[in-house]
Each structure stands twice: as C-alpha cells, then as structure tokens.
C-alpha cells in the first residue's frame, strides 16, 4: 500500500494525517517545544499505529512525507535565533529591526554597519570582519537598490567568501536581501532578509535531523517542507521565510478544496487551535495573498498566503483587568496548558470555560487520551473571573466563550465583506468546531462545512499540496512603457529556465509541470494588487496576452507593472475525496447519552451526545447537540441543523 504522511506542528499539538488507497487517518500528539523532532517522530509512530504497522514497515510503504514546522515563528517569539551581523547602505540603520529602548528588535545595534558605495574590497572585508569578531553567526547584506541591481550585494558576498570559503569549518553564511526578495521597499527588504536569516540555522538543523531520523527508519521517499505559498519543496530548496505560518497557510488550500466539492468559489477558513484562531479567505477560487505581510511585528515584502491570527485559541488565558474581562492574547500553550490539564497551569483558559459549561467531557477528551480535571477548571474560573466580576461561575465561563465568539465573528464578518458572494465557512482545529455555530452567527453566515479531519485540518490540507517553486523579477515600469511586453517576455524566459533546472533537480519531467504567470501591479494611489493566470506554455505569445487581459480586467487602474512572476508546480501523491452512498437520516444509533450543558443565559439543559465516528452519510439531527470524537467536539447550537453528506463531511445550516 502506498501511504502519504502529512505533519503540522502547532503550539499545543502536533497533527498528523495519513492517507492511502481506501485509508484516511488523523492522529494528534502533544507538541514538544524543546525539540520538535520528538513530536514529529511521535506523530509518525502514532500514524503507524493507526494503520496497524510497525514504524519501519509503515515508512517503507510511504511515498511522500510533508512537514510544516513552527520553528521560524518560535525563534522570533522566543528571540533565540542566530546572532546577525547586518551590512547596510548609508541610512539603512533607521529602517533595520534593531533593538532599542522601548522598541523590540532582533539585531543588536552594534551588529549593524553602513557602507558607502566607494569602499574598496579590503575596507568591506574589514567591516565584515569586525562583525564576525563581535560574534556574528551569519551576515546579512541588504543594500539599497538591490531589488533591481543586485551586483553590489553579490560583490560584498564575494569579498567575504574569498576570505571564508565554504569548505572552511569557520565559514560564515552570507545572506543577500536580493536573493530573498526583488520587490520595492528597502526597509521591508531588510526585514525580509533578517527574518529569514534569523531562524535559518535552527530550522536547517531541525529539518535535516528529521530527515535523518526518517532515513534511519527505512524511509526512502521525498521529505517535503510546507511553504506559505501553498506548495511544498525539498529542504535544500526551502528558505526559512517560506516556512513562516506555513501550517495555517496550508489551511487555505484545504478550504479551497472543500469549496470546490460544493461549487463554492468563496470560502472562509477558520482554524482554532490551542494558541490562536486563524482566519483566511478564498476569493473567486483564488487563495488570498498578502503582498507585504507582517511577520511577528516586522513588515516584509515576500508575498504569502494571507492568514490573520487572532489571539483566541483554546489555551488563551482569560483575566479581569481593571474590572474588565479580557481574553488572550496570552496563551497557556502546551506547557503548562489550561488549568484542567493538571500540568501546573492555574489561570483560566477558553478550554477551561468550555469544560465548565459542559461542552467538553472531562473523561473523554481526545477519546480519553487525556483526562481533564474539572475541579481545577472550576477553581481557576471562580478565583480569577467569577469572584472579581461578582458573577456566577457559569456566567463567567459563558462570558469568556461569548467574547471569543463575538471577536472572531466580527473579524470573519470583515472578511465576508470582501468576498464576491456569500461564502461557505470551513471550521477546523481541535477547538474550532466548539465555537463554529456562534462564530458564524456573529459573522452573518449560515453555512458551515466540517470535514472528518477538522482536528488536523492543516495536516490534511498539506496532503493536497504539490511541489512548487515561485520566481519573481522586478519590472518597475509604467504600463505603457515602449518594449514592456518584450522585456517581460525575456524575464519570463529566464525564470522558466531556472524553474526547469530546479524541477529536474526535484526529479520531475518537464512535461509534468503546470505553470502560473503572475504580476504585481501598483495603482495610482500606491496600493498593490496581484494577478495570476494558469498557462500551458509561459513562453507562448498567448500566455502573456492572457496575463495582460487579466490585468486589464481585474486591475484596470494599474499605473505601474511592479514585478512579473512565474510559478511552476509538479504533482506528488495526495489525498482525494471519495463519494459514499447516503443512508437513512435517523442518527439515534449514534447517540451515546445526554449531558447537562449551559447553552446560554439561564439553567443548564439536557443535551443529546453523539459519537461522531458513528454518524454516517445521510444522518441528520437538530441542535442543541454535542458530537464527540477522539480528536474534537462539535457544538451544534440551538437553531442549527447538522447532516453528514456524501463526502462524509458535516454540514451545519442555520434555521
């Protein structure tokens, strides 16, 4: 049997998705922040157990392993990345992410130098040597104007590498901003290069170690790393900045796939994990892209799938500040976790509040894999919330949940207003389905789709991703510039030659490749827009004509052609949806009992509880109800209907 394995490390849990002919299994293991290799291997072991094989036999029968890691994000949050030496143009220090009083940064002020255009090679080397002597573990060269002419940056690197060639043990990595991005915006280009270099060595150690562990266990297929553009690539073809937020960004790929099942072009994704609630939009069948995304507070100019992270996860801490209830953005994380985990956490979290409301079974959390301490949850809510607010325990817990639902619902409503049609809401993450109905109501949405793999949706979405490489060239020309089309055609030809070389290195035949041409346009008001079109042959005249027609239709007010890009992708084995026959609508056989649940203001109500794994295509029920599995709990709120459709997805509709 040929398996695929997809793993996504989150702040609290590491999710795995295993698929093969007639097989689809989801697994979850606790994230081990001290060493992400541990939870990676634990997830592999859990996947092997789910299909009844030893780890070695499982990996021998696996065609591809895809992995999304949080190392880059963690390095920035924890400020434990590489010590960077930064070489800038004159005036560049004012734009760099330097540490200063009252201003966080990731480069020490003494580790940033400016160089003028007239310096000799020996003078450049002297300045670089001073940074190395001060403890720089890598050097970043970011010179103004290098997005269109990288020659000076390359000359600086050549001077340094002549003194520290790659084969010396003391060789120091040198990163060029022009290798990371060719987009305008000097400060953003500095940030992009620094952010990528900051976690480079830490990420490389993790990924190469993970791959070595796989090889030691008889895996012989490709090890592919999730990128935030919705594709995967080998470790050797992965830049650190491409992995930031790659797990949540993968969720958009899955949301688009769910939308396509139902003929929906507009889909909103909502992912609630232990640390955050991430939302994104698929608009007109296209993944929304952030052209100048912020990465942990640093504005960059490397485009990536746009996902907004809200500080409202299951582990988000609730507190009373100056008499006002506040939820998040502080999180209990994996350790110590919510108070109910019994691992030392004493502050109330969203998970503790859901437990107090009866929406989580303390004896059946994650299928009984972890027993929750309801007493500790109640004590945390009482001490930190109910007593300071002067309200009952249940009122305090309900207030926390309502605040999360309201704030997330408002953020989703803002996304909804940018969609072309009334979007389908896809909710996932271990905690997301508990809040789905009320969040949808707050956003003015009435249709929700939840897959059987919602608790590991980012890993599931990764299973739909192909190998892909993106390339970009600066154009920076007015729309009617003479010779513009010929210049763009020449740039596309160069990018295609590079893409063919890279894809051959990945082991793909050129005939198997798919191509997308894209362009970033700048309007008269300074705002930007991206246009992307699929083409059969990027060098054909019809391909560029298609791109220009799309630009005229979608960005009619474009004033400047900022960049042209090419994206090449090649298929690798991935999961595919299978239709099933529908049975009778009665779901009584799946009911496991009833439980007292706080549905809203007032006393608890006896609510039916169903085993989600026993619900089959065709089954339907009306809320309020709880649907439980060993991965998640779904709260079907009053006024909502639920049914399992022919794809085994749960569809929730209001009214």
Automatic annotation (TrEMBL):
GO cellular component: cytosol
Entries under InterPro entries matching the protein: ACX-like_C, Hydant_A_N, Hydantoinase_A, Oxoprolinase-like
GO biological process: glutathione metabolic process
MF annotations from Gene Ontology: 5-oxoprolinase (ATP-hydrolyzing) activity
Pfam families reported in the protein's UniProt record: Hydant_A_C, Hydant_A_N, Hydantoinase_A
Domain Hydantoinase A/oxoprolinase: 189-467
Domain Hydantoinase/oxoprolinase N-terminal: 5-163
Limits of the Acetophenone carboxylase-like C-terminal domain: 568-648
PANTHER family found in the cross-reference section: 5-OXOPROLINASE RELATED (PTHR11365), HYPOTHETICAL 5-OXOPROLINASE (EUROFUNG)-RELATED (PTHR11365:SF23)
Protein name per its UniProtKB record: Hydantoinase/oxoprolinase family protein
Source organism of this protein record: Paenirhodobacter huangdaonensis
């Amino acid at each position: 049997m040929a398996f695929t394995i997809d793993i996504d490390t989150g702040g609290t849990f590491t999710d795995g998705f295993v698929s093969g002919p007639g097989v689809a299994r989801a697994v979850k293991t606790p994230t081990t922040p001290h060493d992400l290799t541990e939870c990676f291997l634990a997830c592999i072991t859990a996947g092997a157990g789910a299909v009844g094989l030893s780890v070695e036999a499982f990996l021998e029968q696996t065609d591809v392993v895809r992995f999304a890691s949080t190392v880059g994000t963690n390095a920035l949050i924890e400020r434990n990345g590489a010590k960077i030496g930064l070489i800038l143009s004159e005036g560049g220090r004012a734009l760099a992410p330097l540490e200063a009083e009252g201003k966080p940064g990731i480069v020490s002020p003494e580790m940033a130098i400016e160089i003028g255009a007239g310096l000799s090679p020996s003078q450049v080397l002297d300045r670089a040597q001073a940074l190395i002597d001060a403890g720089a573990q890598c050097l970043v060269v970011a010179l103004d104007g290098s997005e269109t002419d990288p020659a000076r940056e390359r000359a600086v690197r050549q001077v340094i590498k002549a003194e520290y060639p790659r084969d010396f043990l003391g060789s120091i990595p040198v990163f060029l901003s022009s290798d990371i991005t060719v987009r305008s915006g000097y400060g953003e280009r500095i940030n992009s290069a620094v952010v990528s270099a900051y976690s480079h060595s830490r990420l490389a150690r993790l990924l190469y170690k993970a791959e070595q562990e796989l090889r030691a266990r008889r895996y012989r297929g490709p090890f592919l790393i999730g990128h935030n553009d919705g594709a995967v690539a080998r470790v050797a073809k992965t830049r650190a900045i491409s992995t930031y937020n790659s797990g949540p960004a993968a969720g958009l790929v899955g949301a688009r796939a769910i939308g396509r099942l139902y003929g929906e072009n507009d889909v909103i994704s909502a992912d609630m994990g232990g640390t955050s609630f991430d939302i994104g939009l698929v608009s007109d069948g296209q993944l929304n892209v952030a052209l100048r995304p912020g990465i942990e507070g640093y504005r960059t100019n490397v485009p990536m799938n746009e996902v907004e992270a809200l500080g409202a996860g299951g582990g988000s801490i609730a507190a009373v500040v100056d008499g006002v209830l506040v939820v998040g953005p502080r999180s209990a994380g994996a350790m110590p976790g919510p108070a109910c985990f019994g691992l030392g956490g004493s502050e109330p979290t969203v998970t503790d509040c859901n437990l107090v409301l009866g929406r989580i079974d303390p004896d059946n959390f994650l299928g009984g894999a972890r027993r929750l301490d309801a007493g500790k949850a109640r004590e945390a809510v009482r001490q930190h919330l109910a007593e300071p607010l002067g309200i009952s325990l249940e009122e305090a817990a309900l207030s926390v949940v309502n605040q999360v639902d309201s704030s997330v619902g408002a953020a989703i409503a803002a996304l909804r207003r940018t969609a072309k049609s009334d979007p389908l809401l896809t909710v996932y993450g271990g905690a997301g389905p508990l809040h789905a109905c009320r969040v949808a109501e707050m956003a003015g949405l009435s249709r929700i789709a939840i897959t059987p793999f919602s608790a590991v949706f980012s890993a599931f979405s990764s299973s739909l991703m192909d190998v892909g490489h993106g390339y970009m060239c600066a154009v920076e020309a007015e729309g009617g510039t003479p010779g513009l089309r010929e210049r763009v055609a020449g740039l596309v030809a160069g990018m295609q030659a590079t893409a063919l070389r890279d894809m051959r290195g990945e082991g793909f035949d050129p005939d198997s490749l798919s191509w997308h041409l894209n362009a970033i346009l700048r309007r008269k008001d300074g705002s930007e827009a991206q246009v992307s079109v699929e083409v059969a042959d990027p060098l054909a005249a019809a391909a560029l004509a298609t791109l220009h027609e799309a630009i005229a239709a979608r960005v009619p007010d474009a004033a400047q052609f900022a960049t042209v890009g090419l994206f090449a992708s090649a298929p690798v084995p991935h999961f595919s949806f299978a239709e099933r026959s529908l049975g009778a609508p009665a779901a009584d056989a799946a009911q496991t009992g009833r439980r007292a649940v706080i549905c809203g203001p007032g006393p608890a109500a006896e609510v039916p509880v169903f085993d989600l794994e026993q619900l089959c295509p065709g089954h339907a029920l009306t809320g309020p109800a709880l649907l439980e599995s060993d991965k998640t709990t779904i709260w079907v709120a009053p006024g909502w209907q639920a049914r399992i459709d022919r794809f085994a997805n749960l569809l929730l509709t209001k009214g």
